[in-house]
Amino acid sequence: MKKWGEDFSERVVGTGPFKMTKWVHDDVLVLEKNTEYFDKKPEVDGIEYRIIPEELTAMAEFESGTLDAIGLPMTEFERFTTTDKWKKILWSR
C-alpha cells in the first residue's frame, strides 16, 4: 500500500480466471482471459462491464442488443417476466 499510495486500488493483483486490462472510472471495466490460470479455463475470452448509471439507458441498450446482461430494476420486473422474448432468458441469484 505504501508503494502505490493513492493509486493502490488501481494496482490489482489476483489469481482468478480473468485479468483486468482496462479500467476507466465510471465508464468501463475490461477483463480478459488469464492464460496462466491454474484451474478450469473460462469459456469466454473476456468480459466488458459498461457502467451505465441511468436505468432507462441500460434497459434501452439491453433491449437493442448492445448489452448481454443488466441489473433489472424492480419497476420493470413484471414487464420483463411476462414478455415471452425476455422471460426465457431471465435469471436471478
Automatic annotation (TrEMBL):
Keyword Heme applies: no
Family: Belongs to the bacterial solute-binding protein 5 family.
Superkingdom of this protein's organism: Bacteria
Solute-binding protein family domain location: 5-83
Short name of one Pfam family: SBP_bac_5
GO molecular function: peptide transmembrane transporter activity
The keyword Signal is annotated on this UniProt entry: yes
GO biological process: peptide transport
Protein name (database record): Solute-binding protein family 5 domain-containing protein
Keywords: Signal, Transport
InterPro entries from the UniProt entry: SBP_5, SBP_5_dom
